[in-house]
Amino acid sequence: MVLLPTVTYIGNLYMRPNADTSMGDWIRGQVVEVTQDWLDANKRQLKPTLFVIEGAAYDLLNDGIPDSGWVKADITTWLRDKGMEVSNGYKTKSSLLAMVEGVLSPAPVEEVVVEAAPEIVEEIVVEETPVEEAIEEAVETETTEE
Prior knowledge:
By secondary structure, the chain is α+β, with helices and mostly antiparallel strands.
């Protein structure tokens, strides 16, 4: 069983002429099954304020990014292709489109700045004592200890 897209005219008038004369006029509230090919060829004539389109792979902006014209299954597939984890539980189309928005505009990531610790250098002071003075001091300390 193949599910065909449906188009429903919701305009103010009871009847509206159809550009495709083979289909007859649009009657307000009447659900009409169409093929995806027909929908692709005629989507410019189906203004969202006048028609409700359901069950179609229909890209309103024709940009490859999910929008309200897409079916939930196609939005879910697009999200999974982008690496998003989509649970198998019930999701509304609105929640899926919010996830699409999150993929297109990810939250800014804070950059962690690691500052190098200042290098501590100790100066070692070496006092040079002439050899003769060192010998004299050593001799003096020996004689005082005795």
